[in-house]
Amino acid sequence: MTNTIAITSGKGGVGKTTIAVNVALSLAMQNKETLLLDADLGMANAHILLGINPKFSLEDFVTGNSSLDKVITTTKNNLKFVSGGNAINNLLNLSDLERHKIIKSFNDLKKKPEYMLIDVGAGAEASSMTFLASADKVIVVITGEPTSFIDAYTLIKTSFLDYKINNFGIIINMALSPLQAKLNFDKFQSITHKFLDVNLKYVGQIPNSQKVKNSIISRTALVSSRSNDLETKAFSEISSKLLSIESNNTGSIKFFDN
Ligand SMILES: Nc1ncnc2c1ncn2[C@@H]1O[C@H](COP(=O)(O)OP(=O)(O)OP(=O)(O)O)[C@@H](O)[C@H]1O
Ligand SMILES: [Mg+2]
Question: Given ligand 1 and candidates 213, 233, 237, which is best to mutate, with the most ligand atoms within 8 Å of its CB?
Fold first, then answer.
């Protein structure tokens, strides 16, 4: 069985890709078969954080140049990776049919992963929402800033009202302390519960950290250094909580039949 987990946010630049890459690597380092899909089409950059330059991307699959198998690159620690590609315009303007083709193709893989993490673009555009609704679990990344709260609330509202997604995992990124992060979550939950009948689960926090910034500049994912620091522990803790997020029953097509 494959657990598909989409990572999204209301506002851009809150750390989705950083979290998707490090949590995926953390799972792979625990010998869990893991596939990371960069579905931030048009803005795909997970390969930059991984420090790799894959030969093929989803674009090759969509245009029929290549099978999905060929588009899957094996990176460090046996993490499997599907790049969203660089050729901006082609994938930004995918039709519904093309998005469905991508989603349905994963079920044909001979070797299905245990986890599939999906880095989804920010906001509630149709392109992102299709991927969210097709995942089992949805994580929304927020920071302590009011703008991030408001945009995350809007995204959750659209996901719930238009796509029947009612369970969300929440990660607080760039946290000042674990306590502050939990308080931020409690505040966000109480605002959301006033207006929407959704279930939010606190999945964890990542500290605001120069080490995280440096890892992006050096294109070496932080967890791959296997150090015992707070940041590595925070990513690993999140990886161990993924299965406790409730799955959604949206009625949309899913990546895997299971
Ligand atoms: N925990 C953190 N501590 C400090 N800086 C961070 C942290 N997480 C992310 N950043 C900074 O935020 C920037 C944006 O991160 P990232 O690219 O992961 O966000 P994103 O949500 O994927 O953005 P986009 O919406 O553009 O896809 C990074 O370049 C990094 O400098
Ligand atoms: Mg990103």
Answer: 213
Domain total for the chain? 1
What tens digit of pLDDT does each residue of 71-110 get?
Answer: 999 999 999 999 998 755 567 778 888 889 999 999 999 9
Angle between the N-to-C axes of helices 16-29 and 230-241, in degrees from 0 to 180, rounded to the nearest 10: 80
pTM (predicted TM-score): 0.97
Q: Which ligand is nearest to the CA of 13?
A: 1
Could you count the other beta carbons within 10 Å of the beta carbon of residue 109?
Answer: 17
Distance CA 4, CA 243 (A): 10
Residue 152, CA atoms < 13 Å, CB-side half-sphere: 32
In a domain, 67, yes or no: yes
> Quick one: which atom of ligand 1 is closest to the CA of 19?
18
Task: Identify the domain containing residue 138 by its residue range.
Answer: 3-244
Nearest atom (ligand 1) to Cα of 21: 18
Q: Write phi, then psi, for 122 (nearest 5 degrees).
A: -70, 155
> Is 119 within a domain?
yes
**What ligand has the least distance to the C-alpha of 15?**
1
CATH for 103 = 3.40.50.300
Tell whether 126 is covered by a domain. Answer: yes
d(CA 28, CA 240): 12
Q: Using CA of residue 212, residue 218, residue 221, residue 226, what is the dihedral sign?
A: negative
Angle at 190 between CA 186 and CA 193, to 5 degrees: 135
Query: Is 250 within the bounds of a domain?
Result: no
Which residues contact ligand 1 via a Cβ below 6 A?
A: 9, 12-18, 40, 43, 122, 173-174, 206, 208-209, 212-213, 216
